[in-house]
Amino acid sequence: MRVLLTGGAGFIGTHVLRVLADRGHDVVVLDSLRSDVHRGVMPAIDNLIVGDVRDARVLDQSMAGVDVVCHLAAKVGLGVGVSDISDYADSNVHGTACVLSAMARAGVPRLVQASSMVVYGEGLGLCPEHGQVRPGPRAESALAAGQFDPPCPRCGLALGVALVPEDAPLDPRNAYAASKVGQEQFAESWARATGGAATSLRYHNVYGPGLPRDTPYAGVAAIFLSSLRRGEAPAVYEDGRQRRDFVHVTDIARATVAAVESARSGTRAYNVGSGYPRTVGEMASTLSSVMDGMPPVVTGEFRLGDVRHITADSSAIRAEFAWAPLVDFEDGMSELASETALA
Known about the structure:
Layout: E1 2-6, H1 11-22, E2 26-31, H2 35-38, E3 48-50, H3 56-62, E4 68-71, H4 85-106, E5 110-116, E6 125-127, E7 131-133, H5 140-144, E8 160-161, H6 175-194, E9 197-203, E10 205-207, H7 220-229, E11 235-236, E12 243-244, E13 246-248, H8 249-261, E14 267-272, E15 278-279, H9 280-290, E16 297-298, H10 315-321, H11 329-342
């Protein structure tokens, strides 16, 4: 197949490109080489078109002969302030709308796009009295008092943690999350109007070789790595017990290519996670150990917009695409440490 891969020069994109090429696909890469991501470095990629997905001329050029678009181009991360809202909306929502319009003009029938687990907000909680409930927003006053776990919104009891399925209500709690919901909704609208097929992959916390570092939009693993490289202790927010699903980028790439190669019709979203939730504190401790660095320090600090626990039920993609993660967490952390030592 001929595949248009947007964001193909990025962290996840380069791994997806490698798998697509290994499987014999003809890939065109479109990437704007954003300065806050690429730092002016020109990647060595064949069939690379340098341009923005919001540029109709560049998009129309890129769509020639394409069978499926794999749309990874996006502004990522939680952001640094309210001033980032317009960029998230423009880069992610408007950018996706431009891609979909160009697909309609060119008659490209299939889209696979990167979404995120952040669309669920706090996801689901298990109340001993009321069963599965949807946790409410965490109050700043509660966080400041060290009360990090959201209570049951009906009775106030402490909640257990549940794996979140794809049909859970969407509840974006920050600008990045809202932009990912917008991407999914625009893709659904495009599919209804054109009869096309749209698959949204809700990636969980991705790590691995090439992980962006030393940027305010980096993920937690990259932030911890940067601290350890400087000889500092990783600073863990809250009490370190917030749960995430850390999944290796090569497993993400394999899942993405499986979706690209599928022939499913209609629209569908899939969680893509390892299936083995861990705490942020556990990840910091593992990195510190494999790098022989200072042990992490739990700060009690917090960021409004962060969620407490969000862990995926990835059984659907496992069953429908015969996909399973292959990289063990400890092995993946050791690999990150080795890459950092060579940097």
